[in-house]
Amino acid sequence: PQSGDQVLHLAPEVLLGEQPTLSSDVWQVGLCMHFMLTGGLPQGRDQCEATHGSVRAVATHHVSFHQPLWKEISRQCRVVLRQCLTIDRLERPTSAYLVRKAEWLRAAMQGISTLLAGLEPALHE
Question: Which of 3, 17, 27, 101 is most buried by its number of CB atoms within 10 A?
Answer without folding.
Answer: 27
